[in-house]
Amino acid sequence: MSDLLSIGASGVRAYQSALTTVSDNIANAATPGYSRRSASLAEVAPSNGVLTAQRVTTGNGVIVTGVARAGDPFRIAAVRTAGADLARTETSIDALDRIEASLAGANLAGTLTSFFNTFRGVAANPTASAPRAAAVEAAASVASAFTATGRALDQAAADLDSSAEGAVARINTLATALARVNNGLGRSSAGSAGQASLLDQRDQLLDELSGLTDIGVTTDVLGRATVTVGGSAGPVLVDGVDAGTVTFARGQSGVASFAVFRAGTATGIAPTGGTLAGIAEGAQRISDTRRELNQIATDFVSGVNAVQAQGRDLDGAPGAALFAVGTTPTDISVTLASPRGIAAAAVGGGPRDNGNLTALETLRTSGAFESQTVGLIAGNAATLQSRRTVADAQGAIRDGAIAARDAVSGVSLDAEAVDLLRFQQAYQASSRVIQVARDTLQSLLDIR
């Protein structure tokens, strides 16, 4: 009779734990990062481990051996890889958007066209003051457009630096948190609810890290993660309870560089995924665009000033420089004191001569300043459109990977409702076993 009581009591305890686990699943069905759990049940083995002919054991009850956490490591890894790819492309798109806004914001291509067209008005009537004043105004507009475009690109680079510093700071925060989770996993009991909760936290931290940079992850038997940055062959960022730090720098050439500092050693990394890889790509694109814009500005200023120098102004004096350059090639200003200073006439020509402006038309054609500027904008736009197409595909891949992962580790309320009913019935039946044992024992006592 005592066996019947102990079997019933073991069932009540086991199915109470199973009901608790199912209830936890239902309560956390919408909790981000939560993985479905199940109570692992096993038959209680005989106390001596041996069944003999003298005593036949019909059963010893049930016991909860632990809490099993659902999950497929391959599907989890696929989500991280897809997330890293998408984050890189999205960050690159942000940089391309900033480049597009910088190039188009001041309408540099339009002001260049207006500049050259306005000087045609001077050529048509070299002695008229109105066309000359309009030409000086057009020169001021094109100088302002170059300056604004250059400063916009510089601001885009500065904003990208801020994004990089924020991403690096977040990586370091996540690395420290992961080291703490590793410490907790080293202290938790295998198969416990506490371990399952820590493993959920670990995977959430790893998912966020993979969105910032491509990582390599290995785990030990306790579930503690060792993380490398820049892929599986990169330097170690987290090892057990030890976490390193990631640093960022961008040189004068515009190249973004990252490194891991750990155990007194700094090791450079070349991320190929995540936000850091997108930042590195974006920084290079902004730098390349800035360099091309600088070259256009330099050629334009030197070419126009050279044309001025070889002609004569309205007073017959040699032409003075129209533009001056500041600290950067795009910091351009108009230095011509008076519209009369426009050198329309060729050497030896009179006030009505416009021979020198032929050289300006030639410069317009040979320099191709307008087409080069339009080419910068068009090239960036084409790349941006291509990246957006890639991002759409990568977003679909990531969504598919998440769905596949959640099919294994996610909570299905329908399935949990079935388990809830099943374990409830088992709990009630075990309680009934205890009641039967008590009634039978009381009947025996009453006979005596």
> How many alpha or pi helices?
9
Strand percentage: 5-15%
Strand order of the largest sheet: 3-4-5-6
Please trace the helix and strand order, writing H or E for each element: HEEHHHHEEEEEEEHEEEEHHH
Radius of gyration: 37 Å
Helix content: 55-70%
In short:
The protein has helices spanning 2-27, 73-105, 108-124, 129-187, 193-212, 274-309, 356-367, 369-409, 413-447, and strands at 37-43, 62-69, 215-219, 225-229, 236-239, 242-243, 245-250, 256-262, 265-269, 311-312, 323-325, 332-334, 345-346.
Topology record:
Layout: H1 2-27, E1 37-43, E2 62-69, H2 73-105, H3 108-124, H4 129-187, H5 193-212, E3 215-219, E4 225-229, E5 236-239, E6 242-243, E7 245-250, E8 256-262, E9 265-269, H6 274-309, E10 311-312, E11 323-325, E12 332-334, E13 345-346, H7 356-367, H8 369-409, H9 413-447
